[in-house]
Amino acid sequence: MEDTTMLEDENRPVFEDLVFVVIPNGNAQQEEQIKEDILKNGGRIQEFDPDKGRIEDLAELTHIISSTSDFPDFEATRDQFTPHVVKPNWIPQSIHRNKPANPRSFNPDPALFMSSVTICVGSDLPDGDRDNMIGLVIAVGGQDSPVLLKSVTHLIALNMDDPRCQLADNKNLKCKKVLPHWIDDCFRLGRMLPTGPYTLPDPDILKNSADLGPIANHAPSQHIRDATTPAPTDIPTPVSSPSAKRARSIPAFSGKRIMLSDDLQLESRMRTTIEELISNGGGQMTSDIDEADSYVCQYRNGTDYIKASQAKKDVGNLSWLFHLITYNTWTSPMRRLLHYPIPKDGIPGFEDQTISLSNYAGDARVYLENLIKATGAKFTKTFRQENTQLITAHEGGQKCEAAKEWNIDVINHLWLEDSYARCEMMAVTDPKYTYFPRRTNLGEILGQTQIDRQAVEMHYYPSPDTAVSRIKKVTKRGRRATDGEGTEQVATPLAARTKGRIQSESNFTTPAIGRHSSEKENETPGTSGSRGAKSRAMSKIAESATDIALFQKEMKRAGGVLHGGRRDKTAGDAAEKAKKGSRESTGSKRSFDEMSIDGPSTEDEPVEAPKKAKKARKEKDKKPPIQYRMVVSKYDRWAHQGKKESDDKTKLRELGIAITEKPSTANMLCAPVIVRTKKFVTALAVAPTVVHTSFLDYALEHHELPPVEDHPLLNPEFEALHGFSMDESLVRAHENKGRLLKNWTIFCTTAVSGGFDTMKEIVEANGGVCLKWEGRKSVRPTHRTVDAPETQDMSQNLTEDDGNTLYLISEGKKSEVPMWKKFRELAAEHSMTPRIVKTEWLLFVAMAQYIHYKEEWALNEENLKSA
To answer: Quick one: a GO biological-process term for this protein (predicted)?
Structure first.
């Protein structure tokens, strides 16, 4: 008789006996497609009630579809084996394979930091190195493809001569070709690093430092967006708001009861506004912690904080609440470090620390400054011998050199984030915190660390059975506790959590590691009706154990994945000794003159010399107070003259002038002519004193500041051409006080001349919000209130604004036309008048400092055809 078992199994629907819930992600079309695919392939769907924000019956589910870990029930799924949480693309992948794909490779858990990665290892790498890399990537959520497919995101090779690199070029595949060093460095830090310095054919990490310029500034990290301070002072403007005819509301509060703590010390106006937003969004205010769903407070103390935390309610600070208001999307308050209440007395041990920063700028610097203060440590802008640590994004600059000479710990920001997240000072000797990948600015991976829930519970709101739960919870996170002291850390959060689960199974033994990583590593636990929850749970443990065991084994290898554990130890030791000797030799020759504070460091902040040197140079080091913070634009004297520029800035500082790159802090603007550079235009918003570059020439030549009125910036030709007066602009800027575009939301495409980021900075310098327009109508525009402005003098500068006009800054290109149509539809849906304009409109408004519009700035299909 013919065996039909296999045939029946192949004909079985892919999602038979599986029960799903789909967490909304703002993309209704994608959600409907997912549900349709599930139902067509035999699955069942449990509806998610967005008003309640919680999953009805977690035990009945097998899978949760969510693009992020940011939903209230995620923590509950981490503490049990089912349901699986998978990203939306798990559905089509499973259908394509005709069986459920490995859920761990699609898990949005941030600990699985390579879940978006599929690697293919080049043909020229040794088998041992290939197996090591595959094992490590799979251990943290990534996937391996034995052949080069379109789904491969990263091709690992030593050079472009590798046959698979040539094949990728011939097929025009979009995968990134990177050195294996990238994987090694990612695992040293437990983060997915940018691939730029490792990218073939000309990777920077293989070049001599002398042939390369300084490391580029890091791109703004999205992980710290609106999470740079635990105590914001202004209520944000939501990126989406309903029509001005209706009250502003935040649907994220729908059905929620919110309690505000007294320790927030809110003034009555702000409290009233917050309460109105919550009420209009369908939420309720309460003063009873037992009734509340969410508790908002400043500090991790008090009866209400403990009660709310123990009851698993959402506990966040004002920054978290404002994030919900801004983006109208629920997010866990533990996802971002400064969205969770801060410890009132800091983190134990930090009270004796004095920390400085290097090579971080903008929001990254603000975030780290506030994080340092939240730990209870002292933050200093000036770097001096009394500092205990220097946190830097890379090993470059005067501060790093000084720290090495003075034997001060030079560490990356992961030490600070991990210490804050785990509520204890981590060891600065951990290699993870002292490693700086070549040519990489670590500011790009800022803010990815999340609050350790178990650590916070243990320190701030322990349950009644603390004596027992303390050991269990610490062990579960992969650490060993002895009377509450000392810890042994596992390499990554994933390894820690999984190791804890494995150890908790009394009769479970880690299986032996397979000889080759491709042997059934992507097999998925069975899903037929006869396979119950227990079977799936044990399969999941076994599935994780192999990968984690391999991960832990490979992390112990001295050579890392680059050498397969076969590195020549003697050679390595010799190289390290040579490097150390060179460093000591360099340090011994460095004079105190080089470390003096005669001029600003490479970060516009001084490095303070040792006390003995300062005493010897006391008179020379005295500086006058800063009289002018100056923004300089188009100064030919410094063009391609880096050394001269540095020397001149030192001389100017001795005269009371500090050159700054931040227009918002300036009180003087210097240029040879009126120009439309980003620095010049944004600086006008602060109404600075404007002078000609002859002012600087005189100061540098005569070693004294000349009268400002002797060096005016006169450019009547420019003013006539662009139709404004600089003198009148400065008067208006003084009246506007940087609020000309307050309450404005201006859209801008990425194709504009000058770039989106430039337009964004100009808008924000004048108090507005600039959003990237990509043709998605899910963004809801804001009607502006045209009540009397905050200063009466400013009213005349706003006469042309009716509050109902919506602006899009675009470029006169055919490729932009489809987005114009969608923008008009967006404006029509919200009863607003659309205006699609050239960049000229914004440049005029920012430079003239009043709202004005001309038809010649308009963009439409007709004038595009005529052009």
So the answer is: DNA double-strand break attachment to nuclear envelope
